[in-house]
Structure formats: structure tokens, C-alpha cells
Write a structure and sequence with these properties.
There is one protein chain. By secondary structure, the chain is an alpha/beta fold. The chain has two domains: 142 residues, Aspartate Aminotransferase, domain 1; 243 residues, Type I PLP-dependent aspartate aminotransferase-like (Major domain) (Aspartate Aminotransferase, domain 2, 3-Layer(aba) Sandwich). Helix content is 34%, strand content 16%. It has 13 helices and 16 strands. The protein has a seven-stranded mixed beta sheet, with helices on both faces. Strands 1-2-3-15 form a four-stranded mixed beta sheet. Strand 2 and strand 3 form a beta hairpin. Helix 4 packs parallel to helix 10 and helix 11 packs parallel to helix 13. The model has no long low-confidence stretch (mean pLDDT 96).
Amino acid sequence: MFTLRDLFFKHVAQTSNNSLSFTVSFAKNEFIYDQNNNPYLDCISGIAVSNVGHNNPYVVNAIKKQADLFLHTMVYGEHIQQPQVLLAKKLSDLTHNQLHQVYFLNSGAEAVDAAIKLARKFTNRKQIIACRNSYHGSTIGAMSLMSNYEYYSAYGPFLQDIDFIEFNNIDSLNKITQQTAAVIIELIQGEAGYIPIQNEFLIALHETCKIHHCLLIFDEIQTGIGRTGKFFAFEHFNIVPDVLLLAKALGGGLPLSAIMAKEHVLSAFKDNPPLGHLTTFGGNPLSCAASLAAIEFIETHDILKNVQDKEKLFFKLLANHSDKKIRGLGLMLAIQLNSDTTVQKIIAYCFEKGLLLDWFLFNPSAIRIAPPLTINTEQITFLCQILNEALNLHGY
């Protein structure tokens, strides 16, 4: 008789030789429960997805209500669907109408691929510039923006006319020229280990893009929808991008992504040729209803008010260790150590104590901390207590 675990390894395609293999029974608020109903504090939110917690009743009720009305009716952009329209207006309002149109898709990588097409069509240029150590997804288009050779080398050839600048290095901005269609950048580099952008660098980047009339694209797939203490990370810097990419937490736990821009930019998809970008399930009504409910939950419960206080508490409670560095913004934090092996041992120790933690793709010697925004002071204290125990055991 096969167990569920046996069937998992037999029939579900694996992405590594060392998957977590954690059997989920159910999830509620800040916890995920295993097959024996043991609770585990979710310290990574499914990689910055579950911002409003698991099985949030606002989101679940919105999904149920929409499921009684209709599911898929037509490819994106052809039918007027209330959840899409209301969500697009809400997102526009959150940018104070500085980015007032939305193109909905399914995933972050899909939004990145579409943004590459949009930039090339709108500017009639080909070159796309990204940052070294950035991560924008695993499709061929998104992976073309990756500088880490050992990760992408087996999958080429990739898109041409791609170049890279150094994150937080103003001198590297001279690579941006009149041939550049767009620069795409994370305001906090995700898989590099939650490295925040420096204000001086972002100002210089913004000015350089204006000089060369190329689009500035912010990949806020991880930082968006409150992760840093504001709905969008760009609000910390008072610089509005030409194009904004959202996903992960946007769907409230369901698949959803979005490209936001002004109408004259997004209209590049409308003609010459028409239907220049298509998606069957982008803006799925269930996902849009869930998204709207998640955003309204954040607003009505004033969730963002305390995010930066929670950040400060993490820094305070994890401060008493040598040879490590804590960095990040809001509830998007990393503990930098000096050993990949030690990170895995700490993650394993914390798992045994009821914490779900993770590492970073391009920085495996750092520990990822990105709990639901709803995490409370008592839970943060417990999390840090266990982490401190693990760090002490390994000489930190």
C-alpha cells in the first residue's frame, strides 16, 4: 500500500534531490500543520505569498462567493468581469493613479516575460538591462535576465541583447544607452539574500533612464502588497517606475500577477499587431476576488501600521551574535552567516522545534525570514528564541 509520501515521489515531478517533503494537513493564520496536526510557524510565507496569513476568512469567503457566480468565461481582456475591474481600480488607487492601468497574468515569471515584450514594443529598442544576482523567474525570458552562469547554463540559448549592471554601483549605469529599451530591477534583491537598494543608486538609475528615454521596471513580485511595511516598496523611495510588476502575495494565496503602467505604455499590446500579448487564465475571477479581499483585509485591519515595529523587534532580539549580519526591510529579512552547511543545520534544528525557515538560491549561506504580516509579538519572540538557540549551538 503506497503512502501519500510514496505517491508524492512517484508521481509529482521533483525539482531537487532534497525536497522538504513536508506533508500538509491544513493551514491557519501563521501556522501550517503536518499530517499529525503538529503546528509549524510559517517563517517564509510560501516565499512571500501568504502576507495575510493562511486560510484568511476574508479571502476564503470572497473565493466562495465568486465561485457561486462564475469561473473562467473568456481569455483575458475580452469580457467585463467585476473582480478584475474592481481590483484594477484598487491597485490604481493604491498608486494614487500614477500607474492607472493593469494587465493581469498568472505568475511572476509570466509578468516579467510580458514586460520584456512590452518594453521592446513600446520603445522600438531591443536591449534589456538587469542587475547581477537578480532573480526574475525561471522561464526562458526571465532566466535570460540572470547572471548566475552555474544556474542557467544548461538551458540556453537565451534572449539576445541582455546586459547587466552591478546592484548599488552607480558607476555601472554607463551601460544604459540610447539602445536600451528598459532596465528591470528589484528594490530588494530577493535570491541574493534580501539586499536593499541604496537610495543614491536608485536616484541615479532613475535619472539615467529618463535621460535615455528607456523604461524603468520595478520587479516588486516579492516586495509588493505590504511586505516592506508599505503596499509597494517604491513608496519608501518616492520614485515611481514606468512599469510595476506584482505577483506572489497579490493573489491572496491564489495564482495572480500584474503589470501596472500608464495607459500609453500598456496600449502597446493593443495594435500593430492587435492581441500582442494573450493569456487564457490571467486575471482569473477567483484570483482577483481573493486579491481584492486580501488588500481590503490589510487596509481594514491596519496591518501595515506595525510591520516596521515588527522589523525592529526582529533586529533587537537577534542582535546578540557575532559574525553575522541581519539585513532587509519590513518583514523581508535575512541573517547572513558564513557557511552554507551551517545554514542547513540551523534550518533543520528550527524545523524540529516547529519553525519553517528557508535559504536563498544565490546566497545559500543566509537564512530567509519572511513570515505573514499578521505575525504577532509573541510569535516573533518564539521564533527568535529558537533561532538564537540554533545560532548559539553553531558558534554565532
